[in-house]
Amino acid sequence: MTARTTRRWHVLAWLIAGTSWLLAAGAVAALIGTGTAPPNVADWIMDVVTAVVYGGVVLMMLPRARHPVVWILALTALGCGASGLAAGYVALDDAWPGQDLAVYLPYWAWVPGVYATVAVVPLLVVPGGRRRWPAVAVAVGAIVVSTLPSLTVVVPGLPPNPFGIDVAWWQSMLRSLGLWPDRTVALLGVGVWIWLLVRVRRAPPAERGGLGWLLAGHGAMVVALVAFLMPMSDDWTGTAAEVSGALLLVAQLFLPAALLVLVLGRRMWGVDARVNRGVVWAMMTVAIALAYLLLIAVATQVLPGQSDVALALAVGLVGLGATPLRRLVQRRVDHLVYGTGADPARLLSSADGRDGFDLDALAAGLCRSLRLADVHLVAPGTGEVPAPGGDDLVLTLTSRGRDVGRLVARPRPGERLDQRTTRMLTEVAGLVGMTIDLTQSVDALTTARRRMAGVRHEERRMLRRDLHDGLGPALAGIRLGLVAARGLRERDPQAAEDMLDMLERELAQQGEEVRRLSRSLVPLALEDGDLATALAALAERFTGDELAVHVTVAADVDLEPPIQVAVYQMASEALLNVSRHAQASRCDVHLRRRADGDTLFVVSDDGVGLPPDKVEGIGLRSMRERADELGAVLRLGAGSTGLGCKVELRLPASAEGRTLAALEAAP
Alpha-carbon Rg of the chain, whole angstroms? Predict the structure, then answer.
């Protein structure tokens, strides 16, 4: 749409709104000028208020939507304004021009717009198919037939009707029709209200706000029309008219807001602050007028003949109730226009993921609820904060005095963040920061629990394997040796004595193996995932006057708990072999990440090295078994200087995931 076309629609909207407001102002001026109250005060107040409120609604809607409902509201605003002006205009001096038209205007000017609001508007604004158009056509026909009698009637003794059709058969037909066309419209309105009630009950929660307000306003309109058209005695006619006017006024508490939300929909983005203020102003205008009308009616009954006292009492009560009423109206309108975006707590609860807290789900919820182009929530270490634009809002998320992330909000193209959205994001930022902090704490606790479970599981596997493959067979051999020594004691005492000496040495060796197992149990540092501290403590235990052990762990090494336990056990086996057999003065332990991503673990010493005919013992076999489990490559050789021994374990990066799965699945 071009800028020129947009300006034309703005001009037309101002023309309709200005005309309806001028008509309402003229109605008030005519009442003040004549000092004569209109026959039906409630109807006159309804006409004036409707002209003012609907004029403002058309001003907000028409430049953004050419929906049929907008034209119905324009017709209602102009018709009710003309009807209210005519009610006071007829009381002026007969010399004023156009008084013959003013006599008849209050009877038909408001009918097309009000009747269309009752029977047609809900069918047009509620989302749905094309099956409603037959009902719309029937309603339009009934409205046209309802308007014709008052528009074309000729009444003897009254000024001539400018639109009257002074034909006998026409006037006879109008008299025979009576109020049945109007009652048909009322019956259609009842049917539409029942249909609307069913739609509200079946609608998703996100759509029930606007539909619920439409249901309430439409219900008041239908009851008002039924009360106006019901057959009753002359004694009750005036009261029914007043009740009908009051209910029509009550309907205006709900209909403008509902129609703004349902018709504009997404076109409210960028203007919903004005929509909010406009709806609050419209509802406050209607509410104060209605309260004033009811208080005057009650006060005149309680204080008959004291009109000034009743007026002062009504004004005072309206003034006292205006502020709390506005707060209530503001809260309800905020919820209608902004939805969950009106309350930070509800906003967070609605944006929370179904399976728990999730940054992406929360960002999407904030973006949807606050009607923004994009929202990024980035916790430290989880991603990069996008470069903010000129209109973006960047907030630091903090909790317990520390930085826990960033929030970047980006408005829609061509828009800027208004004060309400900025304030809402600022309030939400504190809650989001605390939520991220709590989630990080829970994740850290869960990780620690998983790490501890993995460490304990690996520790039990190590003990079971060493006891089954080492200590168990050794003790069984010692038992068999004792049985054999007992048998040799009488036949060959010397052989029995030699065998007992051998069994004693074997028993001492297995005792040392038990002590090795106890020392190799996982330390507390490893339970916390601190492999560097665990290796340093292990090195300190083997360091003495004859051997110095040095440990170096690169900062970029990050292994899963089961792999950490395996590396620690291999380091323990290697250092035990160095202390027993290497005759070394220095031993170096290195753990680092290679450039290709592999992890390299090296234990080297400056001792005597491995003899060529060395038979692998339990320690070396255990290290090879662990290497096979890790999917790693274990190499034994001489040190870099040609002296001593070097044990090198290379764990490929691609194998770490498979290794972890295999270790966790192992019995």
Answer: 45
- Residue 646 and residue 532 share a domain: yes
> Is residue 336 within 8 Å of residue 257, measured between CB atoms?
yes
Cα–Cα distance for residue pair 154/161, rounded to 1 Å? 6
Are 351 and 339 in contact by the 8 Å Cβ rule? The answer is no
DSSP E strands, 191-259: none
> What gap in Å lies between CA 175 and CA 153, rounded to an integer?
9
The Cα–Cα gap between 216 and 227 comes to 17
Residues 58-76: tens digit of each pLDDT: 887 888 777 888 899 999 9
Give the DSSP letter of residue 303. S
Handedness of CA 558, 564, 570, 575 (dihedral sign): positive
> Please, what is the Cα angle at 29 between 26 and 34, to 5 degrees?
125
- What local confidence, expressed as pLDDT, does residue 588 receive? 92
What is d(CA 348, CA 365) in angstroms, rounded to the nearest whole number? 8
Q: Are residues 286 and 396 in the same domain?
A: no
| Paired residues of 402 in beta bridges | 399
Measured N-to-C along each axis, helices 561-577 and 493-520 cross at an angle, to the nearest 10 degrees, of 140
**Residue 387 CA to chain centroid, in angstroms?**
24
What total of structural domains would you count in the chain? 4
Range of the domain at 571: 526-667
Residue 395: beta bridge partners? 407
Q: In what order do the strands lie in the sheet with 599-605?
A: 548-553, 586-593, 599-605, 646-651, 633-637
Of residues 635 and 613, more confidently modeled = 635
Is 54 within a domain? yes
- 3 state SS of 408: strand
What CA–CA distance (Å, rounded) separates 632 from 570?
Answer: 12
Would you state the structure tokens that stand for residue 497, as one six-digit string? 């004595």
Look up residue 657 and give its DSSP letter.
Answer: H
Give the C-alpha separation, 283 to 280, whole Å: 5
Which of 71, 81, 97 has its CA nearest to residue 18? 81
Q: To the nearest 5 percent, what fractions of the chain are helix, strand and coil?
A: 70, 10, 20
Highest mean pLDDT among 465-479, 585-599, 648-662: 585-599
Q: What pLDDT, on a 0 to 100 scale, did the predictor assign at position 45? A: 80
Residue 306 reports pLDDT greater than 70: no
Instruction: Flag whether the pTM goes above 0.85.
Output: no
Q: Are residues 284 and 398 in the same domain?
A: no
Assigned domain for 605 exists: yes
